[in-house]
């Protein structure tokens, strides 16, 4: 099952590789500035950016760290990103599965992963691997979309994401992430949650080019229960969905083996 999911991810991201380099959501500068502010990278640090996509975080880190390894499961995506970041000499590109990282134990001072874990079939294996490759006292910063704690809203959120992008597996709740960190001796140092506004047309077109499929996703929003319309701030104008919000979680954890 998970191999099939990973093939879906590779298909979707190969097809849309340029869209992720250009995506406003993915290249938002204030987000990238915050990553640097929270991690405080310096030239002595070796960093790993997992599921780098368009390479925005890897690029931001490369101005501060000695070496950055940018990994992605999709070779086409990585190749395209490497072509865009030719001026960054200290980034190494490695095709790698987030749940089976090809690195030795305790290799990195810093690890990052942004807007990607909802594509991973096994978050449990992913966090276990992050903890394994981090040095003791190393820090991991993750940003991802999260599902609300309410089960009904969780189901609605993951349903519309999956309908828009079949490589979406599941956005976890914050409580689930916290449990995974705890299980792997990663202690939360700082976290925040925020509402992220999504322009519907840009969002739906990033993965779907068939108009009927786009309309089907729009219908899910239009027929949403009142509680969901409120929580996700779904805005319609002239019978068309214009925008909505999702919950984003940013967290930094530190590894302590003992």
From TrEMBL:
Listed GO biological process terms: methylation
Any GO MF annotation of the entry: S-adenosylmethionine-dependent methyltransferase activity
Span of domain Methyltransferase type: 48-141
CDD domains in the record: AdoMet_MTases
Sorted UniProt keywords: Methyltransferase, Transferase
Keyword Methyltransferase assigned: yes
Keyword presence, Transferase: yes
Family, as annotated: Belongs to the methyltransferase superfamily.
Protein name per the record: Class I SAM-dependent methyltransferase
Organism in which the protein naturally occurs: Halobacillus trueperi
Lineage per the UniProt record: Bacteria, Bacillati, Bacillota, Bacilli, Bacillales
